[in-house]
Amino acid sequence: MNQPLVITEEEFADNFDFCLTLCERNRVIWRIERPDGTAIACVPVTDVPHVAPEIQKQVEEFRQQFLDNPATAPI
Question: Considering only the top CATH level, what class is 5-70?
Answer without folding.
Answer: alpha beta
